[in-house]
Amino acid sequence: MSLSFEIVVAGGGPAGIAAAIVAAESGKRVAIVDDNPRLGGQIWRGGLTPSGETKEWHKRLEACASLITHLPGVRIVDHPAPRTLVAEAADGVAFTIEYGKLILATGAREGFLPFPGWTLPNVMGAGALQAMVKSGLSVEGKRVVVAGTGPLLMAVAAYLRHAGAKVLMVCEQASLGRLARFGMTLARDRDKLLQTLRYGRETISIPFRTSCWPVAASGAEKLTGITLRQRRRQWQLACDYLACGFHLVPNTELASLLGCRLQDGFVAVDETQSTSVPDVYCAGEATGIGGVELSLLEGQIAGLAAAGRHDQSRTHFRARSRAQGFASTLAQTFALRSELRSIPTPETIVCRCEDVPLRDLLQHTSWRSAKLHTRCGMGPCQGRICGAATHFLFGWNQDSVRPPVFPARVSTLAHFTHKLRDNDFEAKETQ
Amino acid sequence: MTQRYDAVVIGAGIVGAACARECAQAGMRTAIIEQGTIGGGATAAGMGHIVVMDDSPAQLALTRYSQLLWSDLASQLPPSAEYETCGTLWVAADEEEMAEVLRKQELYRSAGVPVEVLDQAQLREAEPNLRPGLAGALLIQSDAVLYPSAAALHLLNQAIEQGADLCAGAHVLHCGNGSLQLSDGTTFAADRIINAAGALAGALTPGLQIRKRKGHLVITDRYPGFVRHQLVELGYLKSAHSVSGDSVAFNVQPRKTGQILIGSSRQYDEESPGIESRILTAMLDRVGQYMPGIAELSAIRSWTGFRAATPDKLPLIGPDERDPTLFLATGHEGLGITTSLATARLLADHFRGAAPAIPLDPYLPSRFAAEAAHA
User: Fold this and answer.
1) Which of A331, A365, A382 is the last residue of a domain?
2) Cα A412 to the chain's mean position, in Å?
């Protein structure tokens, strides 16, 4: 099977939705390829609804729905030829998607840091625990600690509390001073302030500690307690779940496969959100962690630029640069403090796919050397977790990205054979 | 300041590491230079198949000798080397290829290699995931697999334990006439320089008859027991030995982790290290023809590497006649993992003036010089 669209959007979060909608509003035939079952990405996981914060986008999507094809549960795994992607659906069916223009809106994933016990059952990503609760996991009456860094911690804490969990504490590694400066920025932005106050109402009775982080999780078969540290003080706390998130890591793998230039770990784009590869755009968290508002603006600019409506796209430039200011404040506020590098002990597992402890990594000076000799990053997650962790711990950068971008069936990787062979024969005949 | 050594080995791939180990064990003051990662070039890209091959009598002699050296070393290898004597099955698709199986059986037997012929039913029992209807196979029980980078690191560590010095992170700018200059300013003086730089050897020693031959590989998630032996189609011989043109062959390997390594492809004169869909898909298609069920398995990574190929499929081992201090240990093409130990032992015997276990002549670099003189 082969599909073809004028514009293909990779990712169905806010940036991807905004890009697809403005492109469709411009009369283009658009596809949104997304590995989740529903549109919305990580942040609007419940999908777009006629009321609430997604109201406007829901209405606009409805209005141009006939031009937008949503391909849910689909992962892009290869880029075998110009303007062509190979994708695999959740049931293993493979197909090619051809595009005129491609907009990457691949978002970000949670960052993890290894500490003793972090691989115990019930130590989870903050966003992952939230997603599991949304899918039916009951946390009613469970004692939960939310720890790490970033604005998502409060959102997750508020959500879990709403779902009946006893949220014992939120531990933020950033200092109070940094958060105060962050608060000043928020105060200049009415919407963000209101949002924060909303979380604030829900979380007002949850102890919130700054300059505080987990140094160990313990338990025999699953988590029973954690050790926290705040300045020089260290203490233990019994709990059932630890929801951990050390800010966000951009998903740049597909961009790398396509050959897009990265800068400081993010996809480099110009003012029209164009990447270094012609007809490939990027919007949202993959270009810099900036939250929903910036993602929506970048998505619209990319969508309009891809649809050829450059004048229209310029109308969002000023709002985007304001939102980018917020993004850089975010990055400064939630930068990981260097003390976190000393939490893992030599025995702490860093690569959980291949069970590689820190001790084994210390003998190496590069990602490649560590990977070849310890198997770190060789497992099914392809280094998505330990790659970011070792970047923070040792400053290592990962290898180039090769297909498959996500684990895919062997038949999916082989999918292109017949078509390419036909092309080969043609090429030979004309020589 | 110039550092003095009896022997300096260029390249810490599996061949270079093995050479440094032999030199150090022979009591020579030895250094080994690596610009990148230990075992990070063709060593890391290869399958890690310890295989006896019979393309020529000289190839059979070298691969068999080296396989026995590996077998002796096996008990000392660390678990990370994942050494396993799983055997090779040369798979015959039809009766014509079965005739080839019988021919090979005789040849291997005459070389003292234990072999067994499997008929259609026995092959089916040995490897239930091969497609039905294949004619049979030749089983070479003594063939093994290992994880090459870890094996190279082990050999290097043994060299270091014997007193060899590792000089990592700098590349060789110039070598010859007993001296080497490195990019970090270091200079070495050595009685013997061993160029074991694989596909890059020609950049240091001009005029070598080495061409890069690119290969692609894919690895799956863990499926223990899905494949039990290294499986290679007999047609591999045709494709591996075709001197020009791109070729693919069915060649899969069970890893100790339960993963399956899927190959293989061969391309001359392709310099780009990127994955080429045209080759990757043709290779996977070929694999699917022999093992249809593999299509459903999850592939997690693909990569490429460059073999150092010579015109006659034999490595270059021994003195370079143009420079009395220069020795070669390269050009192993797809057999560097297998023949690394024998290469190193033959060189060390040559240095010691000891009689080699097999004649060195077929591998001497001078064989091409002689050819050039006649031409």
Assistant:
1) A331
2) 24
Q: Hey, are the CB atoms on B40 and A369 less than 8 Å from each other?
A: yes
Mean pLDDT across chain A: 91
pLDDT for residue A52:
86
| Structural domain for B197, as ranges | 2-45+148-210+313-374
The answer to whether A10 and A76 have CB atoms below 8 angstroms apart is: yes
Residue with tokens 């993602």: A295
Which residue out of B14, B34, B35, B37 would a mutagenesis test of the A interface target, given it has the greatest number of A Cβ atoms within 10 Å? B37
pLDDT in tens, B218-260: 999 999 999 999 999 997 666 555 556 789 999 999 999 999 9
Cross-strand partners of B299 = A408, B220
Number of domains in chain B: 2
Q: What CATH number is associated with residue B205?
A: 3.50.50.60
A to B CB pairs, distance under 8 Å: 96
Q: Which residue of A has its CA nearest to B279?
A: A417
Asked if A124 and A217 touch (Cβ cutoff 8 Å), the reply is no
CB B49 within 8 A of CB B337: yes
Find the domain containing A382 and state its range: 338-394
SS3 (DSSP) at A135: coil
Tell me whether B12 touches chain A (CB under 8 Å): no
Looking at the fold, whether B225 and B270 belong to one and the same domain comes out as yes
Cα–Cα distance between A224 and B233 in angstroms, integer? 54
Is the CB of B299 less than 8 angstroms away from the CB of A368? no
d(CA B317, CA A301): 61
Do B233 and B134 fall within a single domain? yes
Put simply, the chain A residues between 362 and 391 with a CB less than 8 A from any chain B CB are: 366, 368-369, 372-373, 378-380, 382
CB atoms within 10 A of CB B50: 31
Q: What is the pLDDT of residue B374?
A: 53
